[in-house]
Design a protein that fits this description.
Elements lengths: L3 E8 L4 E6 L4 E10 L11 E2 L5 E4 L4 E3 L4 E10 L5 E6 L5 E10 L7 E12 L3 E3 L10 E11 L17 E6 L7 E10 L7 E3 L7 E11 L15
Antiparallel strand pairs: 1-9, 2-8, 3-7, 3-9, 4-8, 5-7, 6-7, 10-16, 11-15, 12-14, 12-16, 13-14
């Protein structure tokens, strides 16, 4: 069965919602966040007006140690969802940018396959890897990537390379001066293998910090066709 993005919504408030969600589909949430305190903790799963969310990759937050800030990202999912409106509340952080998406053609039972995460702290750098997953369990899978980027001062435009090679962009926020540098994207693969991605940008401010992650989800098994024949007399 082909994997298809049905719809998406983005937001940076307390909640983000999708209406007319089809029963049995997959919901995913990318969330890039900034905390004005250092906890060193990964994000917890969001809550929903109907259904329970699971953690695919909560990510390892980037930590700006001298100033005591956290910045990172998470990827979460809800499988085999109920039909109707889903109003989702991400973890309460100082600031965040969320992408809520609905997907069809995903396995309804245990769809999450493999994931990875990586971070960089207190450095002048212009790229962040997601880490590399283990080999995917099957050929046809959905791959999601997420980045959270921050700096002590920040700039109005970090100069992201868009798109990330091989991926389709879902949401991009270029301002890490008064917002969270954010990049959410996806691709659909048709062969087994390890998965990874690299986010690139041009701003090389000192003491930047970032967290990125990657998660894959298995397609539903294709249905078989029954062929019926008739004997000719």
């Amino acid at each position: 069965m082909a994997i298809t993005k049905v719809q998406q919504a983005t937001g940076n408030g307390a909640t983000v919602a999708l209406t007319s969600v089809a029963a049995g589909n997959l919901l995913t949430l990318h969330d890039s966040y900034f905390r004005a305190v250092t906890t060193g903790a990964s994000e917890s799963a969001p809550t929903d007006t109907q259904g329970t969310w699971s953690v695919a990759q909560a990510g390892v937050p980037g930590i700006e140690v001298p100033l005591g800030y956290d910045c990172g990202s998470g990827i979460f999912y809800q499988a085999n969802v109920a039909a109707g409106t889903h109003t989702v509340t991400p973890q309460n952080n100082f600031a965040h940018n969320a992408t809520l998406a609905e997907w069809s053609g995903i396995a309804t039972s245990t769809p999450f396959d493999v994931g990875a995460n990586a971070k960089t702290n207190n450095s002048s750098f212009t790229s962040q890897v997601t880490g590399t997953t283990a080999t995917t369990a099957q050929a046809d899978e959905l791959v999601l990537i997420s980045l959270g980027l921050a700096a002590p001062t920040g700039v109005a435009d970090v100069g992201f390379t868009d798109p990330v090679s091989g991926f389709t962009t879902l949401q991009k926020v270029i301002n890490d001066a008064s917002d969270v540098g954010t990049f959410h994207a996806y691709k659909i693969v048709a062969a087994t293998g390890t998965q990874s991605a690299t986010f690139n940008w041009t701003d090389s401010e000192a003491n930047q910090f970032a967290g990125a992650n990657i998660a894959t989800f298995k397609a539903a098994a294709a249905g078989g066709d029954t062929l019926m024949g008739m004997a000719c007399l």
